[in-house]
Amino acid sequence: MSRLFQLQENCLRLMGHNIESSGDGFKHLSLKHIASLLFVISAVYPLLYYVIYNRDDMELITAGLSVVFTNLLTVIKISTFLVYKQNFWQMLHSFRQLYLKSHQKVAEEDGDDTAYLVQANKLATNLGRAYCISCGFTGLYFMLGPIVKIISSSWRGVVYARELPMPMKFPFNDVNTPGYEVGFIYTMFVTIVVVLYASAVDGLFISFAINLRAHFQTLQQEIRELTFDQAGHQQQLVKAVDYHVHILSLSKRLRVIYTPIVFGQFFITSLQVGVIIYQIVTHMNSIMALLVYLSFLFSIMLQLFMYCYGGEIIKVESLQVGIAVQTCNWHLAAPKQRRSLVFIMHRSQRQMLIKAGFYEASLANFLSICRAAMSFITLIQSIE
User: Fold this and answer.
1) 271: how many CB neighbours lie within 10 A of its CB?
2) Is residue 305 within 8 Å of residue 147, measured between CB atoms?
3) DSSP 8-state code for residue 229
4) To 5 degrees, how large is the angle CA 87–CA 88–CA 94?
5) pLDDT digits (tens, 9 = 90+) for 230-277
6) What are the backbone dihedrals phi and psi of residue 226, each rounded to the nearest 5 degrees, phi first?
7) Of 19, 5, 14, whose CA–CA distance to 200 is shortest?
8) In 3D, which of 146, 234, 208 has the Cα closest to residue 354?
């Protein structure tokens, strides 16, 4: 079982958290947690200073704003995680307990209730690993860009104006030695912290969402397999009702924990898409710059997709529970059993939505942002 929840544990430990330090709120935060948050916040100054310093150049302004928005989103994710860090461990513990109950049921009966859970955790692990690698390569691409340009200029014997990996401007000489090296190292560590926290927090969300889908599917299977012609089925039905209530409770807890992150993800991603598309359209003649901004755009859209996909599968599977009740042998049930089935069906008619304010995490909204991005490309090209 330990390997089934390896992704969740790795994501939590990646941010310096463990079971022993999972106390309430900020009261139990260690110095490394506060330092991580303050370190990322400190990057706001050189990023905004770069935007203000180049306020007369729209291309440089949009280049700086795209990274400013990414940094602000990471601050939201770190802050939210630190506030709710105990809730993250509680959710992981709840999923472990649900798996143990299903595994025990398989041992006592001849069933296969753990199949969905095992498959879900394998899928979550693969998605989380792929997402982490994608974020890592994007950050690495930004960091290696200036190094490659310096080496290339040295080989060709031309003078290269040094550039930092990220659009930052420090209150000291960050072009010549040693200021450039200091700025480069600072930028490198900020990028590492941003990538680690972003991939870990987002990986936890998609992992929890996929596990919730698996539990909804397990519940649907249990309901469809009810025959209502044997003694003890009333107790099984009561367990199904309790199981449904518990899954819905975990879904609501996930929504509460990720409300600030979902709101920030949608709002800031919408702004990022605008400035990055402007950069893409205005750098069509530069292959190197085009690859950088395309990879950046892919990374932020992948982040948004993780939340939209997770919200979509929870919404769909929560509705499928009611269909499972309609397709089971309910006509063989006693009146008391039918009342329990009606309770499940009535609750499943309301969608379990992952939303924050007027933003709903769904594939429909993800496609809306993609369509808006395509329209923005056409608008900028017509203006140019």
Assistant:
1) 15
2) no
3) -
4) 85
5) 555 677 788 888 889 999 999 999 999 999 999 999 999 988 888 888
6) -65, 135
7) 14
8) 208
- DSSP per residue, 101-153: HHHHHHHHSS--TTHHHHHHHHHHHHHHHHHHHHHHHHHHHHHHHHHHHHHHH
Angstrom distance (rounded) from CA 128 to CA 134? 10
Spatial contact of 253 and 87, defined as CB atoms under 8 Å apart:
yes
Is the dihedral angle over the CA atoms 342, 343, 348, 349 positive or is it negative?
positive
Using an 8 Å Cβ cutoff, are 120 and 211 in contact?
A: yes
DSSP 178: T
In 3D, which of 225, 223, 232 has the Cα closest to residue 345? 223
Enclosing H/E stretch for 53: helix 44-53
Residue 102: closest CA among 336, 94, 32, 370: 94
CA atoms within 13 A on the CB side of 92: 25
Q: Dig out the tokens for 216 from the structure.
A: 């909804």
How far from 19 is each of 22, 24, 82, 125, 262, CA to CA, in Å? 5, 12, 14, 20, 26
pLDDT in tens, 14-73: 666 655 444 444 445 667 778 888 889 999 999 999 999 998 888 888 888 888 998 999
Rounded Cα gap, residues 276 and 330, in angstroms: 55
Distance between first and last Cα of the chain? 57
- The helix or strand, by DSSP H or E, that contains position 331, with its residue range, turns out to be none
Q: Rounded to whole angstroms, how far apart are CA atoms 280 and 212? A: 38
DSSP tag of 197: H
Nearest to 11 by CA among 73, 89, 75, 79: 89
Taken as a whole, the chain contains a residue count of 384
**Can you tell me the distance from the alpha carbon of 86 to that of 88, in angstroms, rounded to the nearest whole number?**
5
**Cβ(268)–Cβ(73) under 8 Å?**
yes
Per-residue tokens: 58:
């729209």
Closest CA to 211 of 263, 237, 246: 246
pLDDT at 25: 41
Q: Which amino acid is at 141?
A: Y
pTM of the model: 0.86
